[in-house]
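ok, trying the design again with the full structure, not the truncated one.
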């Protein structure tokens, strides 16, 4: 039986702009859903990503080492076999490539990256997921762990969890919504969340905030979107009055500044 996925747009009626962008019908418009988790947010602001720390950026475009904490993440292993690494080059243009894992032995990327935005497991062995933490970093690799980590996939997640992103060159980003959640069971534990943006050549500043008590959720949708210019770094951060697990997610539409030069 053949099933046809019909759309009201195909019948000439109105369809939400966001859905049209997601379907690739609006030229030079792209969508992004970026999310992360920090399992141990402390009493100082930390980035919402799995290493539970303040994220440090690469200072120059460089070849990245891809490795795993498990020997099973390899071309013929039971864990992850290939991953896609995505990010920006030295000119802030979007790039990506597929890397075949070799267990705890590092594999170098072909491209040089100034920013990393995601790691995704594309193929895996019988386990169906990455058996160890998969790392993207630089420096000496010891037992699969590089000295400097810029992205990672937690065991079994198959995708990096990092609520940070950088606007590509030639684009302007519009954050349409964001959300924070916490699973803390500590009484009166207050979590403060923030969306922080650093314009190119500038410093990070708080552009939006949230307060979450205990195991609560904060979800905000903008009437007029939060704007980030090209090459701006965007992060979701949080702190807590007592240690807490915090997640963050943001929806973004980014639009090419001048389509005539594309």
């Amino acid at each position: 039986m053949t099933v046809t996925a019909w759309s009201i747009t195909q019948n000439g009626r109105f369809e939400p702009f966001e859905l049209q962008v997601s379907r690739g019908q609006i030229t030079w418009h792209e969508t992004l859903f970026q999310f992360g988790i920090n399992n141990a947010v402390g009493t100082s602001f930390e980035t919402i990503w799995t290493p539970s720390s303040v994220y440090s950026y690469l200072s120059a475009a460089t070849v990245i080492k891809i490795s795993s904490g498990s020997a099973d993440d390899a071309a013929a292993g039971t864990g992850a076999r290939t991953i896609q690494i995505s990010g920006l080059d030295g000119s802030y243009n979007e790039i990506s490539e597929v890397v075949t894992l070799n267990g705890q032995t590092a594999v170098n990327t072909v491209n040089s990256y100034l920013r990393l935005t995601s790691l995704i497991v594309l193929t895996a062995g019988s386990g169906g997921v990455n058996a160890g933490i998969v790392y993207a970093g630089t420096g000496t690799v010891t037992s699969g762990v590089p000295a400097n980590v810029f992205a990672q996939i937690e065991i079994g997640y198959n995708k990096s969890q990092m609520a940070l992103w950088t606007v590509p060159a030639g684009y302007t980003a519009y954050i349409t919504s964001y959300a924070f959640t916490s699973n803390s069971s500590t009484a009166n534990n207050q979590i403060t969340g923030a969306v922080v943006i650093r314009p190119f050549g500038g410093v990070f500043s708080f552009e939006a905030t949230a307060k979450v008590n205990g195991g609560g959720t904060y979800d905000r949708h903008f009437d007029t979107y939060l704007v980030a210019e090209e090459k701006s770094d965007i992060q979701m951060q949080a702190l807590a009055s007592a240690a807490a697990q915090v997640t963050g997610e943001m929806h973004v539409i980014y639009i090419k500044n001048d389509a005539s030069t594309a």
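Keeping the full-length input from now on. The chain has a mean pLDDT of 92.
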